[in-house]
Structures
1.
Amino acid sequence: MINEELVRKVIAEVLQEVAASENVESASVTARPSAPAVKAEISMEMTEKERATRGTDAREVVVAIPPAFGTEFDATIVDVSLADVLRQVFAGIEEQGLSWRLVRVYHTADVAFIAHQAAKLSGSGVGIGIISRGTTVIHQRDLAPLNNLELFPQSPLLDLETFRAIGRNAGMYAKGEQPVPVATKNDPMARPKFQGIAALLHNKEVKALDRSKSPMELQVRFR
């Protein structure tokens, strides 16, 4: 069930920005719709290092995120901690004996293009893109941006077990294997239930973009 208080807060913020009024109280969009919450067992600190370049290690998978991931937002659309999301994706990659790099992509909030950028930077040619609400794509360098290896569009249905499996499959693709696609739940009501909130959160994510900035490599520390 959608949290009505969240809807009111998000709408209030949108109206405030449209009216450009300094007297309207700013609303927070860091809350999420009601759902079985996954409390973060860890927190993370991300530090920008240098401009991301194409890797030379054929046994790496690059994970790419947009600017609002971990800054404006700290959880997915169903309140799964973004720190835990990354931790599980990395663990899945490591299970396959591969390494990972984390990159922040500044020029787009489209998960397909974020994932494709990750693949182009990856030494193995395989990358993962994750946006703040949880939508995820596994991509390969030589594929067209909208033609990916695996797409996970129903972010409200993605849990930590699924994110770990995503990392695991990406590692298998990077090794030249053909894994069975990650099984996901399907709820035909998920889209209409969360579509409005997803659109508002996307707008917030787009505002954090810097289209003149190159992808940057990140150092992440879990605590």
2.
Amino acid sequence: MAARLTLLALLCPMLASCGQSEPEPAPSPTPTVATPRTLVGANLDLSTLGARIEGPQGDEVETVLSADNRQVGTLVSYVACPAGLESCNPAELPADTTYTYVHRITLAESGAAETTEVPETATEAPPTLFRTTRKATGFNQAIGFSTDEAADALGDPDAISIVNDNGALIWRVVRGTGWQPGKTVTLWWQSTTPPQGPARAFAFEIDGAQIEASGPFPPEDKPVERATQR
């Protein structure tokens, strides 16, 4: 009996636990995920806009919005300098110049979704929205839409909510009676970075269809260069 106790005493330090449970590992830190932030949209005041930037396609870019072999609408975009400037050449302007990106969406006469208020028990209708598909470089938190056009096209001057989703900008129709055929709504935002040129950096969603679109857009942020450690 004594020999058995001696053998157990020798083996005990070699075991992972001598009749006791191992301590639980420390929890791994959970990375913080940026949540979408609601932005306060301002009405579009055309009097604050000056000359437009002349790009390879002129002073505005037009894109046909189509889905399932039918035209849903059109998107016309341009970038303007502040009021008082008769020409808008970023190469000749100060680095802190603010550029206003303007997007006019017109729904086709026969491609509109005439949605009405949906009962709570019914299936939620697909959202109608316009968004940037990547981070809006240089965005200075100034953003909005034409409230008069929203009232005319959507039935409510406050029909649109705006969200910053990790740098991407989203205008979503949340109120009103639906986008009326042939009607236009103008959206805008500002950046301290001029456009690099037309880019497929936008999307329009309606009736469950997701449509890519091109328009003037600032270049992506350059990666931070780090010195090589020796």
